[in-house]
Amino acid sequence: MNIRNGILAAALLILNATTAVALEKPTGDVVLTVTGKISQPNAGDKAEFDIDMLEKLVSRTGTMETPWTTGKVTFSGPMLNAILEAAGADGETLTIKALNDYAADVPMSDAKDFDTILATRMDGKLMSVRDKGPLFLIYPFDEKPELYNEKYFSRSVWQIKAIEVH
Known about the structure:
This protein is α+β, with helices and mostly antiparallel strands.
């Protein structure tokens, strides 16, 4: 009987480790929609996030200079990779779309290889649309100065509303 219980317990641990946790539904205003090749939708075939959901994910804070701000600014927000994992994203390219329909294609590897964040806060305050919010893709310019160039500037979308996974 003990061996059977041990096997059952081991099987349950394996099942729990390989079963993805369902993405909760937003209770506040939706600020980000992830579509395309995802396996964890929470609204039809898309994954929707409100600010509270985003701020519960693994996050990062970095103080850096950017071409779009004056002096050093502190950005904080969820890691892009954490958002993609929560949505069950599985693709090669992300099309990141802004409120004004500007879009940039970003390799999925940027989320995995760099500590990229979707900043929700600048200097501790939630980012408004006027201040490039509600979400701003920020590369780790503070940790990797070699990223401070036009290639990554063009991928640094602000006023983000959606990500499509290809």
